[in-house]
Structure formats: C-alpha cells, structure tokens
C-alpha cells in the first residue's frame, strides 16, 4: 500500500456525545427512556420531552399516532427521531381524526426525522409530514411516506378543495424563512393527492436541498417548488434550492398535465441529475400567478423519457392576461427521449420541448430525440418572448421531424434551420445512446454528441448525470452524459473520500495499471474551482493508494482524482463529497465531567490513550481499539489532559474529573 501524509496537522478538539433515548410499543412514559428496557411508550411523549443533542431511537412496531414535535435542538445539537438500527417503524394515521398531519413540525428547529414509515392518512387535506413556520435545520431523511389520500374512496373525483400532501413545507413566516432544510433519500409513493403534490416546498423557504428521493404513483405533480401562492405575506418564494438526484415516475393527473418536477414561482434553483419518466410533463419551469415571476432556474444534466407530453416545458402559459412569466432561466445538457407520447391527450401535442412566454432564457446542449408518431421536436408559442436563445442542441427523430416556432411550421430540420430563427450551431443526427428504450440514455463511443456542445460551459455544472466531470477531452458533450473513454487502469475500488476524525481519508485501489503515469487529487469547496493537493506516481501494477487531507474547513469539500497516462491522456473520477459536521470532529468523550470511567468513541482506530494529571504527570494509559475506556474513580478531582493516538496522529482533549 502506498501511503501519503502531506497535509496532516495535529489539532485539539472535544465533542459531547448525543444522549440516546428509546421508544417502544411495550414501553411506559413513566420510564426515563434511557434504555431499551426503560423505553418510553409513545412518540408524542418523546416529541414533547427529548432534549437538544439527543437521539430518540424508535423500536419496531406500528404506532397509531398523529404527533407534533414540541421541542427544538440547537446548532450542533440536533434532535434526531429515527428507527432503531434496521427496525421497521410505521407511524400510521389509520382510523385517526384530528390533525391533518401524521407528523407536524411547527416553529421548531434542528430536528431530524429519519428512517420512518409514515402511512395511512385518508381524509380531506391529509398530510404525511408537514414543516411550517420559523424552522431552521430541519432534516427529513430516508423516510417512506405512502397512502396519504384526500379521501377513503379511490373513486372520488379530485377538485380544488380535495387535496392531500405526503410531504409539504410551508414557509409561512414572512420575516423568518425556513432555512437549512434537507429532504434526502425519502420514498413518496401511492398517494391520491388531488390538486396537490407528492413533495412540495412552498413560500418563504431560503436555502434547501431536495435530493436522492424517489417519488412515484402520485396522482398529480411529483416534486413542486412554489412561490407567490400567498403562503407568506412577504418573501413568498422558495429560493436558493437544489433539486438533485431524484427519481420521479408515474406521477399523473386525471384532470390536467402534471410535471414530474415543477417550479411554479420559485427563484434561484438548480435542478440536476434527476431521472423523470412515464409521467405527463417531464420537468417544467412555469409561473401560474398573474403579475408574478419565476427566475434564476437552471435545469441541467437530467434524463427525461417516455412521458405523455413534453419533456421540457418553460414559460408563462398565458402571459400577461392569465399567468406570470419565466425569466433568466436555462435548460442545459438534458437528454430527452420519446416524450410527447399521448397525442391528443390532456396536453395535446406539445413536442419534446415546449416554450411559452419567457424573457432572457436559454435552451442549449440538449439531446432531443422525438417520439416517431408525433415527431414534434420543438414548439415555441407565438407570444413574442424576449431574449430566448436555442443553440447547440442535437435533434433527431426516426420518422417525422417537425418544428413549430412562433406560428411558423417547419416540416423538417433543414427547413427550420434555413429559416434562421434559432439553433444556428445545432445539428440533426442519431445521438446513438446506449439503450434508450430501457431508459439508458448514456452515449456510445461513436455518438455525434461527443465534444459537440457549447464551449461556454459554466452553467452546465461541474458533473454530468453520473457525477463524472462535465467536461472531458477538453470539450463538453451534448446531453446529460459526458462520455469518458476507458483508460488502461482497472479500478478494484473507486476513488472515495471519508471523514476520519479531523482529517479526510482519500483512497482508491487498482487491479491493473498499464501505461499509467500518475494520479493527482484535486480539491474544491464549490465543485467549480479546483486545486491540486497531492500527487502519486502510478505503480503500474495493482496497488492501494491513500492520501490524507488535514486542511479541512467549511461545511462541504469536494474531491476528484485525475489519472494520467504516459501518453498524456487523462480522465477524472466521479466527484466525491465530504460533509463536515458542525463542531468538525467525530470523536466523543463521555461523560465529561467524569466520575468513575472515561469512555471514548472515535472513528479513528486508536492505538493508545494517555491521561495526564493537573501536574502534567502521566496517571493512566491503555492500548485501545475504536472504542475504549479508562478508570478514573480513584483520581482526585480536577482538570486532566487526555491524549489519543492513531496512525493519523495525535489529538488532545480536556477532561474534568469530579
């Protein structure tokens, strides 16, 4: 193994451990909740009493409750409500009236809901999880929300007043936005939502992430980012958000055209690396409210296929008389295949891309492969949009290839391009994707999309749909996938980064290296601007490599590995990210102050623990593994210095003995 330590710095740190509590269907609220045997009985009791910096572990079972979180954590002291280990925990609203929501978080902060099944709420305005008001640092992670229906009768017809919401966030406080919101890794499924959505962020929400979720079998829009609905009296726009790496499918409305991912009134958003298929519209940027604006939205690096209507939709649908407008937004490097399948359906024939009224918007670097029966690649409404730009797109159809631009109809790409209205640098050719009929829209080696995109790539983002570098071989590809030629290095383990105590451990393993020259690790704080931090000479044989980065600050760090061959050719690994916890360190020493024993839990593989007294003399030492303890019951009260050693170096911590 090759081991490099170019950046390691020693540091001093301490972190108080979170207190664990337990809830069980066989528990008792008269217990202290600190052990499984002494677990609490009800979730509501836990949500009334859990202190900051605690974890409430919920044991397996069905909890027939509707609950509200009535406690808050603190910055660095999150309260986590989670399933215990891998236990199946169902919070069911079955048969319950009362509150609309199964889980309500109102004006509370630093709360995490994780690993729970939230199900079976069937009533008018039913909700699975709601976050509303002055909320900071709320995280919804790895939950499964289902059977949230506006009525108990599956045959009931939806109306504007018949709705349900599996996950809904309302920023209703005009002066205190919901911020630091994370909705990650959840499943939202099988819900009749009426005129509402599967997962929605609405109103005064400033700074959020909707990532890695799966949304399907919802009877309207899948994911919706909303503004201008009157949710807040001011600042009524969800903004500064990331909607990424989600899978959305089979979200269809019986009464209107529903998008898989929709922005209606949002601002300053990035929608990237999502897969949207078998719905109605794919991804839409719109603005329904009269006199209002949606702005600053970037839709990039998404796979969109097999939807009933258009794959990409942008604009105010009836501006200025009935809707608002979309401005300063972009749709870049998306791959569209066989959308607009339902000719004459709810949305009628809309083409692969449909544009209504926009101002200063760009549609570029997209693969647009039309559905043969309709063959309409592009529809631009005759509404005199201002500053609309289309270029560097790759169009194709197996049969008809029609364009409709501001009232003019073109029977093929040649006629459309000859008109000179848009797409001067665009082309018409089979994009040669891998297996598009199965949703694999990656490029083949001979695709004409390779290196054919707009050289102005900044808005396309740092990575493609797979997390690989967005530019390879010096030029960007058209579509969501950046084709990367295989170089003569075979990886046994991919490039990884993980936080180990107060350093980032970067590692990769190869099983074969032929003609390889060197590896360079690059680091970034924003995934845009990169710096070289370490280099390794290639072994030209199977080898394991490790590098330690000890210069870690901020909240997120991005890394990528550049592998270069002897002939000068090179490729980049996927970009990997490390999220740094508040407080920065992942060693916990508890209790502190201590009385009888000092316990240590660390992600490091500790080799030795040494305890020094107030006079600086060594009073205890032990050889320890990842978790250890030292007896201190016979030591006089005072302040002691605890030194922990590992192969990464040494850290020093202050411990008080009572």
From TrEMBL:
<dbReference type="GO" id="GO:0016837">
    <property type="term" value="F:carbon-oxygen lyase activity, acting on polysaccharides"/>
</dbReference>
<dbReference type="InterPro" id="IPR006626">
    <property type="entry name" value="PbH1"/>
</dbReference>
<dbReference type="InterPro" id="IPR059226">
    <property type="entry name" value="Choice_anch_Q_dom"/>
</dbReference>
<dbReference type="InterPro" id="IPR012334">
    <property type="entry name" value="Pectin_lyas_fold"/>
</dbReference>
<dbReference type="GO" id="GO:0005576">
    <property type="term" value="C:extracellular region"/>
</dbReference>
<dbReference type="InterPro" id="IPR011050">
    <property type="entry name" value="Pectin_lyase_fold/virulence"/>
</dbReference>
<feature type="region of interest" description="Disordered">
    <location>
        <begin position="444"/>
        <end position="468"/>
    </location>
</feature>
<dbReference type="Pfam" id="PF08480">
    <property type="entry name" value="Disaggr_assoc"/>
</dbReference>
<keyword id="KW-0732">Signal</keyword>
<dbReference type="InterPro" id="IPR052052">
    <property type="entry name" value="Polysaccharide_Lyase_9"/>
</dbReference>
<feature type="signal peptide">
    <location>
        <begin position="1"/>
        <end position="17"/>
    </location>
</feature>
<protein>
    <submittedName>
        <fullName>Right handed beta helix region</fullName>
    </submittedName>
</protein>
<feature type="domain" description="Disaggregatase-related">
    <location>
        <begin position="206"/>
        <end position="340"/>
    </location>
</feature>
<dbReference type="InterPro" id="IPR013687">
    <property type="entry name" value="Disaggr-rel"/>
</dbReference>
<keyword id="KW-0964">Secreted</keyword>
């Amino acid at each position: 193994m090759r081991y490099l330590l170019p950046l390691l710095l020693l540091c001093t740190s301490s972190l108080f451990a979170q207190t664990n509590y337990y809830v069980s269907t066989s528990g008792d609220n008269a217990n202290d909740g600190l052990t499984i045997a002494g677990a609490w009985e009800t979730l509501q009791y836990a949500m009334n009493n859990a202190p900051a910096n605690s974890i409430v572990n919920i044991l397996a079972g069905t909890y027939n409750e509707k609950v509200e979180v009535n406690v808050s954590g603190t910055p660095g002291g999150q309260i986590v409500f989670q399933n215990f280990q891998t236990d199946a925990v169902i919070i069911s609203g079955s048969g319950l009236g009362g509150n609309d929501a199964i889980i309500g978080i109102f004006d509370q902060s630093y709360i995490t809901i994780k690993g729970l099944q939230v199900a079976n709420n069937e009533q008018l305005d039913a909700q699975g999880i709601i976050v509303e008001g002055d909320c900071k640092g709320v995280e919804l992670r790895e939950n499964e929300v289902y059977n949230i229906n506006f009525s108990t009768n599956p045959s009931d017809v939806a109306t504007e007043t018949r709705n349900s919401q599996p996950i809904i966030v309302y920023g209703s406080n005009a002066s205190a936005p919901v911020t630091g919101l994370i909705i990650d890794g959840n499943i939202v499924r099988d819900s009749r939502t009426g005129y509402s959505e599967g997962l929605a962020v609405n109103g005064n929400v400033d700074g959020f992430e909707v990532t890695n979720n799966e949304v399907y079998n919802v009877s309207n829009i899948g994911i919706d980012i909303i503004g201008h609905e009157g949710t807040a009296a001011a600042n009524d726009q969800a903004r500064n958000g990331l909607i990424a790496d989600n899978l959305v499918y089979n979200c269809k409305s019986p009464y209107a055209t529903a998008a898989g991912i929709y922005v209606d009134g949002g601002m300053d958003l990035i929608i990237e690396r999502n897969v949207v298929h078998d719905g109605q519209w794919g991804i839409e940027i719109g603005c329904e409210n009269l006199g209002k604006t949606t702005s600053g939205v970037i839709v990039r690096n998404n796979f969109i296929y097999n939807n009933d209507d258009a794959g990409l939709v942008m604009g105010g649908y009836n501006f200025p008389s009935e809707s608002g407008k979309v401005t300063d937004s972009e749709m870049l490097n998306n791959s569209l295949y066989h959308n607009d399948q339902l000719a004459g359906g709810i949305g009628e024939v809309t083409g692969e891309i449909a544009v209504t009224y926009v101002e200063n918007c760009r549609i570029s670097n997209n693969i647009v492969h039309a559905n043969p029966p309709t063959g309409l690649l592009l529809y631009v409404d005759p509404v005199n949009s201002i500053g609309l730009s289309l270029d560097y797109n790759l169009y194709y159809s197996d049969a008809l290839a029609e364009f409709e631009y501001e009232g003019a109809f073109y029977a093929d790409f040649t006629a459309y391009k000859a008109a000179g209205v848009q797409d001067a640098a665009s082309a018409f050719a089979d994009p040669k994707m891998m297996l598009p009929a199965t949703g694999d829209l990656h490029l083949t080696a001979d695709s004409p999309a390779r290196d054919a995109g707009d050289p102005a790539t900044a808005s396309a983002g740092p990575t493609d749909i797979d997390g690989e570098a967005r530019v390879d071989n010096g030029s960007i590809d058209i579509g969501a996938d950046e084709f990367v030629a295989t170089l003569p290095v075979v990886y046994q383990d991919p490039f990884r980064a993980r936080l180990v105590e107060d350093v980032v451990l970067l590692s990769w393993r190869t099983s074969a290296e032929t003609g390889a020259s060197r590896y360079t690790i690059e680091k970034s704080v924003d995934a845009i601007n990169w710096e070289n931090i370490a280099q390794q000479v290639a072994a030209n044989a199977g080898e394991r490599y490790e590098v330690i980065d000890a210069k870690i600050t901020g909240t997120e760090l991005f890394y990528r590995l550049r592998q270069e061959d002897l002939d000068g050719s090179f490729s980049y690994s996927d970009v990997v990210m490390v999220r740094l916890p508040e407080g920065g360190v992942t060693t916990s020493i508890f209790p502190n102050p201590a009385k009888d024993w000092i316990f240590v839990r660390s992600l490091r593989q500790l080799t030795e623990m040494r305890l020094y007294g107030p006079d600086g003399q060594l009073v205890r030492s032990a050889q320890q593994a990842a978790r250890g303890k030292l007896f201190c019951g016979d030591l006089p009260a005072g302040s002691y210095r605890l030194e922990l050693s590992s192969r990464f170096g040494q850290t020093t911590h202050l411990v008080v003995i009572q």
